[in-house]
User: What shape does this take?
Amino acid sequence: MGITRYNYTGFTIATTLLLLREDRPVEAGVFLTVALLGRWAYSRLTRTEPPPTSDTLLGAYEAPPPPPVEEVLKTEWLTKRELAVLAAVAVVAGILFLSRDKGGFIHVVGGNVFLSVDYKQVEPLHRVDRHSTYPVPSGSHRVWLYDPEVGVSDRKWQVEVHEGEAFMLSTNPDLCIVQVDMATLKYGQPLRQDGAALPVLARFTETLTPVLIAPNAFLDVAELPDSRPEGPGPSLLTLIPCPQARDDRSAWDAVRTSIPLVQAWAQRAGYTDASSTRGEAQAREMPPELGCVAMATARYWLIKSEPSVYAYAKLEEDGRTQWTGVRNFEARNNLRAMTPGDLCLYYHSNEDKAVVGVACVLSKPGPDPTAPGEDWASVDVGPVVAFTTPVTLATIKATPALKDFPLLTRSRLSVTPTPAEHFELVLKMGKTKLPKTAAAKPKPKPKDRATP
Assistant: This one.
């Protein structure tokens, strides 16, 4: 039985509706366009002309008169008008295809891992040794993971994916993710002024929290490029036993023990068993009363607050405050990665939309007192210096060197790590210099700011 026009139309409509129901509007548009073009081409190819007329009574045949030139143009297989319509449809379909949301990715290091997104199994996009990459559409998804080598079948995450983002998941509840700086280890960048601070950048001890993969972060030493990549400093994300992720020294010992190549690089770079952690180097270099500006091992962050809620001027007035109210898991993990002496660019969101000053971290991370009994974090921060000239969001967007600035690439987060080169450039754009020493005003009890 042949396919009738009505069957074909029904099939086209049903398939388009199914694609729309699956929240795939771009694929639905492309399919509908191709289906209509196919139907049009079929109708043109199978069109037949009426037979010539004849007078059967007289036995004579009369050839039809030649049609006017205009009629000939109308009956050509492809007219200029139809060609223009085809070109327009092709352009629209191309634009729809190129502008589609490409989603993000989930990276897993393990054995023959099974991963499902919203209860549908997903095949890996590619797999290299034990590293598998899975495509995930944008949006909020329920992710389930099973690694036969581990045998734990209840590894579930709620992941919010934006276009271009990539996350790393731990297949084992006993293995935690740590991030190690590769700039010195792999590429020979000179050690920081402390000369020996261990290269552990962050420790993620919540195994059911997806870890966002930062730009130039790699999941295996074999994936590190031969020459240093452009942009933020390269780093390595790897898994270690969670008990060893409790502090930087234990984490570093676990990483270099499990990866012999890292141990070889560490010896070449000058790291020893006596090397200090960043926190130890900070405590040794600067007495607490001098604040955090002169800390050679300070890391850099961006923190946000609406000026109508807690402006930088209010921080200067209070001298010290608890940074509370963060209710995003990734931002919370960033808070927990902070150490006393770290420096923060202070951004006024929503209203001013500008970086207006520098704050410093004055305490180790602790529980958020505004959420008793819940798993949120806070730190104490104090003022360092207000910018002479606020650096607006528009200025940052117009600066090519800041195209990877977290304020642009991670705009939904209120706490993000910031590369040193970005911190220094924004400081320069604000026509501001850090004071050599600047003590936060002592307060017996830090004031709590309103939730940002």
Notes: The chain has 13 helices and 23 strands.
